[in-house]
TrEMBL record, chain A:
It comes from Pseudovibrio axinellae. Pfam families: Cupin_7. Residues 108-197 form the ChrR-like cupin domain. It comes from the Bacteria. This is Anti-sigma-E factor ChrR. InterPro entries: Anti-sigma_ChrR (IPR012807), Anti_sigma_zinc_sf (IPR041916), ChrR-like_cupin_dom (IPR025979), RmlC-like_jellyroll (IPR014710), RmlC_Cupin_sf (IPR011051).
TrEMBL record, chain B:
PANTHER family: RNA POLYMERASE ECF-TYPE SIGMA FACTO, RNA POLYMERASE SIGMA FACTOR SIGZ. This is RNA polymerase sigma factor. InterPro entries: RNA_pol_sigma-70-like, RNA_pol_sigma-70_dom, RNA_pol_sigma70_ECF_CS, RNA_pol_sigma70_r2, RNA_pol_sigma70_r4, RNA_pol_sigma_r2, RNA_pol_sigma_r3/r4-like, WH-like_DNA-bd_sf. Coiled coil: none annotated. It comes from Pseudovibrio axinellae. SUPFAM superfamilies: Sigma2 domain of RNA polymerase sigma factors, Sigma3 and sigma4 domains of RNA polymerase sigma factors. Residues 43-106, 141-190 form the RNA polymerase sigma-70 region domain. One of its GO terms (molecular function) is sigma factor activity.
Length: 218, 197
């Protein structure tokens, strides 16, 4: 049961294609896991379609349609029209994430970045200084308390964590803004694996976290 | 209405229902005349969409053509229970724009997914009659939004601007941009439910 969903503004950014790549990856992973947000996505897409349908118009030349006809008519008759079914998680890994990792969680070469915290930076090329990583939190360790200059989105993929704002289980999304201070901790016996996307360097509070910051590589 | 704008007085408007019928009919009959009608309706709107998104005139023409090449190939797969014709065509155009401007995102927004046969949503979650009237409702509801809110919704739609770029552009804190967008979408949703068809 998913309790924490994508915000409206994030869904809208996804639908309009204006999310940076890492954020878009996180959104599509959540959508794969969440029926409720699939419904909200359809609604947002319908809104975008309606905006197109009612938008301003600019003249196009007749010649453009003639050229188009030449182009499509010279195409070979189309091969089989493929109907592919919706992607499903593979070994518990959302398919878009699998596409990036090329494997499941067990084969990942984690890097220790602090006590009880390991990370794997995802090879997601992105504009806008965004960074996408998998984080693995071991139970019983506190991540350094931190706040954000930009925003951070987190999707729980395995296990669960808790912080001041609540408890997050598999499929849950946390969208943390500039002003949120939080200190997530894996709250079961199990390691917690999350997809975390940040669009500006995290700002850590306190001296020790400051010392750790270089290790996060952010 | 301002929304219909620049069409030089000639009325080029079809209802969602009519567009849906056109697209389905093209999928079945492959009639060039129907294809042309779809082109007449959508090409001028797509041109506006691509140009505002930063395409040159030449590129906009090219992207319009590419959109229609995909419509030509895939119209048979169109299913009105899944999406209105405008939504279906919007998604094609958006994916082309992303492909063009953001090569890095190729692995997301996959076309094959979009053309998948399964229903994307349970019909209980999103009723198709609601969808059929949505464009008409949006047309009525948008002018009722405060200007700053409709602006922020359209910025993401047209300019391909991320939340942080919009924040930069409007010189507002990121949090303000997000909350304004959230308010606008909540408000719009209420308006869409409340406005009479
Ligand atoms: Zn959800």
């Amino acid at each position: 049961m998913i309790n924490h969903h994508l915000s409206d503004e994030t869904l809208w950014a996804y639908v309009t294609g204006s999310l940076p790549a890492g954020h878009a990856l996180l959104v599509s992973c959540h959508l794969e896991l969440c029926k409720a947000c699939q419904g909200r996505l359809a609604e947002a897409e319908a809104l975008a379609g309606a905006l197109l349908q009612t938008s301003e118009q600019l003249n196009t030349s007749d010649e453009l349609f003639e050229r188009l006809l030449l182009r499509v008519e010279s195409e070979k008759p189309s091969r089989s029209l493929s109907c592919i079914s919706r992607p499903k998680p593979r070994q518990g890994v959302p398919s878009d994430l699998w596409g990036v990792l090329g494997q499941g969680y067990s084969g990942i070469k984690w890097k220790v970045v602090g006590p009880g915290i390991r990370q794997f930076v995802l090879p997601v090329e992105s504009s806008e200084g965004e960074k996408a990583r998998l984080l693995k939190l071991s139970p019983g360790y506190m991540t350094p308390e931190h706040s954000h200059h930009g925003s951070e989105m987190t999707l729980v993929l395995k296990g669960s964590f808790s912080d001041e704002t609540g408890r997050y289980k598999v499929g849950d999304v946390q969208e943390a803004d500039d002003l949120v201070h939080h200190q997530p901790v894996a709250d079961t016996e199990e390691d917690c694996i999350c997809l975390a996307v940040t669009d500006a360097p995290l700002a850590f509070k306190g001296l020790l976290p400051k010392l750790l910051q270089p290790f996060f590589g952010i | 209405m301002q929304l219909q704008g620049n069409d030089g007085g000639s009325r080029n408007y079809l209802s969602s229902q009519e567009l849906s019928v056109l697209l389905q009919s093209f999928g079945k009959t492959r009639s060039k005349e129907v294809f042309r009608q779809l082109f007449i309706f959508f090409a001028p709107r797509l041109k506006n969409y691509f140009l505002k998104g930063g395409a040159s005139l030449e590129l906009a023409d090219e992207l319009i053509q590419e959109t229609f090449v995909i419509i030509w190939r895939k119209a048979e797969l169109y299913d009105e229970r899944k999406a209105s014709a405008s939504t279906w065509i919007y998604t094609i155009a958006r994916n082309l724009r992303i492909d063009h401007f953001r090569k890095e995102r190729r692995y997301l927004y996959k076309d094959d997914r979009f053309f998948s046969k399964e229903l994307v949503v349970d019909e209980t979650q999103f009723e198709s009659h609601h969808q059929a009237q949505l464009s008409e409702r949006v047309q009525k509801a948008l002018p009722l939004l405060p200007a700053e809110q409709s602006k922020i919704i359209k910025l993401a739609f047209y300019e391909d601007a991320s939340h942080s770029k919009i924040a930069q552009y409007l010189q507002l804190p990121l949090g303000t941009v997000k909350s304004r967008m959230r308010l606008a979408l909540v408000r719009l949703r209420k308006l869409l439910k409340g406005v009479e068809p």
